[in-house]
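Something for you to look into today, if you have time. Could you write out one complete protein record for me, on any chain you like? The space below this message is yours for that.
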Amino acid sequence: QVHLVESGGGLVQAGDSLTLSCAASERPSANQAVAWVRQAPGKEREFVARVNWATGNTYYADSVKDRFTISRDNAKYTVALQMNSLKTEDTAVYYCGAGHLLKRWDEYDAWGQGTQVTVSS
């Protein structure tokens, strides 16, 4: 099972940018996808973005579309989440997960430990 480690979180101001990175212990297989999800205090975990490893096809939640960009690096086994125009409501712990591309993100079986993103006003 692939092991995932997130990094890049921090404290930023509204309107700033931040890039998160998810490092995999091995190359995700061709039938896998990697997703970023987040969990704000007192709220349920929610989907943010996903990239299919083989094709690079990407999918976004409406709340982050046009502000966030997910991308993968085949050579480094990493998935980045570029976050622009951050809002206070983007404050959350961000997790990356990996699983079969036909599964919902909440059915993925590999997850990192999360990285905190705090956006101040």
Notes: The mean pLDDT is 97.
